[in-house]
Each structure stands twice: as structure tokens, then as C-alpha cells.
TrEMBL record:
Primary site of residence: membrane
Official protein name in the record: F0F1 ATP synthase subunit I
Highest taxon in the source lineage: Bacteria
A Pfam family that the UniProt record links to this protein: ATP-synt_I
Coiled coil location: none
Record organism: Stutzerimonas zhaodongensis
Compartmental location: Cell membrane
Membrane topology of the entry: Multi-pass membrane protein
TM helices/strands, residue ranges: 28-49, 69-86, 92-112
Amino acid sequence: MRVLLVQALVAVSAGVSCGLIFGMVAGYSALLGGLIAFTANSYFAFKAFRYFGARSAKAIVQSLWAGEMGKQILAAALFALVFVGVKPLQPAALFVGYLVVLGAGASALLLMKNNPKH
């Protein structure tokens, strides 16, 4: 849950930063990219972490697989919707926002692994 919070904050920060530096179109493009990553990762977290315990090992594996496949499909669909429905759009800012949020998620996982109390 903390990783999703970090990703949401990074998505908003990327949008605001790009907006202030490069203009409004870059700002909302970066925000949309960040929101695509955040939404897809939220779906994965919801789907993948429903089961716990040794007795549900098969269900855990199936839910991880379904969560990852759903995440990829959702991200692709959201990118398609943004490219079709949002005009004007800066694709570079869109992908930067997406990648920054993905990187924040990976970094947050590494930081929590090294310091599980925080």
C-alpha cells in the first residue's frame, strides 16, 4: 500500500514539475502517463495479493499471473485511450511520467526491503 502511495505522489509531482518547466500540455501528459502506471499497478496489487498462506499456493500463483496479465492489458488500453482521446498531447512527457512512476515503485520496493520498519 505504501508503494502505491509513493507512486501516486510521484505521478502528481511529475505532472506539476513538467507543467511548470515545459508548459501545460507537458504537465497533463506527464500526469496521464503517471496515472496509467499507477492505475495498472493498483490493479495488479488488488488482483495479486488477495491470497495468503501455504494452503493457497496455487491460488497465489494464479492470482499473480492474472494480475500481471491484467496490468499489461490495462496499461495498453489506457495508453490507447489517451493517444486517441487527448489532444494536444506530448508523447515524450506521457512516457516520462509513466517511466518515472514505474521507477518510483521499484525504488520504493528496494528501500522497504532494506529498511522494513519504514
